[in-house]
Amino acid sequence: MSGKDIDVLVLGGAGVDTIVPVPELPLPYADSHMVDGIHARAGQTGDFVALGLTALGLAVHHFDFLGDDPEGELVREFHRVHGIALTALPQAAGTKRATNLVSPDGRRLSLYDTSRTRFEERFPESALRELAARSRHVHVSLTHPCADALPVLWETGVPLSTDLHDWNGENPYHEPFALGADTVFLSAAALTDVEATMRRIARDGRARTVVVTAGAKGAYVLTSGELTHVPAAVPPAPVVDSNGAGDAFAAGFLYGTLTGATPQDSARYGARAGAYACTVPATRAAALTRAGL
To answer: Which of 145, 174, 181, 248 fits a disulfide with 273 by CB distance 3.0 to 4.6 angstroms?
Structure first.
């Protein structure tokens, strides 16, 4: 498209995870546990979507708040190493961070540090409009203050996507995202009725496509009122960590969308990218390339 030098603008979701390997989940209560290494690395949801899209050959720009702290430098270095353009606004409270407990079978429990959220923060409208005008697509992370950016993004006319992660279909925090994006991703993990939730999102919001990921059970795609099941892809190596699989799926799906694939074929791309992500240890950052896809 003329004047569009960014394929995907990723809004929000930058931060650092501290990875703690644990013997099992849930972790039995004890005064202490011995673990084999604790590792801090950049890579929250926006970072991993940006990485996945970049690995697939798309031009990506990431826009978020970062602190002037060691965690912020880890995120900046992540983007430098992987060649991802980054616009970082100052975050006085510090860079977003979380602790992930990861079990040997690849499952995880994430603990998010809410002390680094400042509810008065907003993306500057002028910068948001300028970046959106240069973009073919905007992926909106489920982090503050992204919900407040939605009305501005609607006015630009750029297609939007978002990932609701493990939404239960009821938490009001997720509602603006669920109803405000053209493509909505979410996990089946906390849903009691997958199809009903998908159809409600499509009925009540702007979504033209709703995608629910269900791990080894594959994914479900709702578009034009038709619900389709897409089988899971076979991981190319042993599964070691599910962290980032949903972000990788979203990146693969968006790659398909932006290269003209149908929603169903885009979901197959997403399934392959997600399966690959499950084979990458939590302490590393790697994504499926276009050749691998």
So the answer is: 248
Least Cα distance to 146 among 18, 49, 19 occurs for: 49
Q: Rounded distance, CA 111 to CA 200, Å? A: 29
Give pTM, 2 decimals: 0.93
Check pLDDT > 70 for residue 1.
no
Q: Pull the structure tokens for residue 52.
A: 């996945």
- Per-residue pLDDT reduced to its tens digit, 37-46: 999 999 899 9
DSSP string computed for the chain: -TT--EEEEEES---EEEEEE-SSSSPPP-S----S--EEEE--HHHHHHHHHHHTT--EEEEEEE-SSHHHHHHHHHHHHHT-EEEEEE-TT---EEEEEE-TTS-EEEEE-GGG--TT----HHHHHHHHHTEEEEEEPSSTTHHHHHHHHHHHT--EEEE--S--S--GGGHHHHHH-SEEEEESTT-S-HHHHHHHHHHHSS-SEEEEE-GGG-EEEEETTEEEEEPPPPPSS-----TTHHHHHHHHHHHHHHTT--HHHHHHHHHHHHHHHTTS-TT------TTT-
Percent of the chain with pLDDT over 70: 99
Write down the residue that tokens 């409208």 correspond to: 125
Beta-carbon count within 10 A of 187 CB: 20
Q: Enter the tokens of residue 172.
A: 């009001």
How do residues 201-254 score in pLDDT, each as one tens digit?
Answer: 999 999 999 999 999 999 999 999 999 999 999 988 988 877 789 999 999 999
